[in-house]
Predict the structure of MarR family transcriptional regulator.
Amino acid sequence: MLNNELITSWLTLTHIQMNVTNELEANLQAKHGLSLKEFYLLLFLSEAPEKKLKLQKLEAMVGLSQSAVSRLVSRFEAKGCGALERKACDADRRSIYTALTAIGEDKLLRAQDTFQETLLAAFPEKDVKELLDQMLRMKQQS
């Protein structure tokens, strides 16, 4: 019986996560012309030293293959919005950095408000904190 409860809980959690992900994607696209992966790309770059990262590093962070990250950056550049720029690595000319521009930072700041509003609409802040605390406790007990 416990096994079925665990499976049901897991399926419920993944269902909630998929719904919230879809809502985030729709709101970011409608209000900022950003996909969720593009938002994550801007976010990770904003948190990186000098606001730049090698494509190989971005792969693991964004959860895409090297070619998919490269296409994501290329599509972003093709939009012509000036949010990203590619730079050659001084130490290794074969490596390329993707860097966040001031335009990209501004775009991210506006999109973060939408991201947070969407999460707070999906989960009241108090409920999210309690849920995350419960999940952390469960993880620590195992």
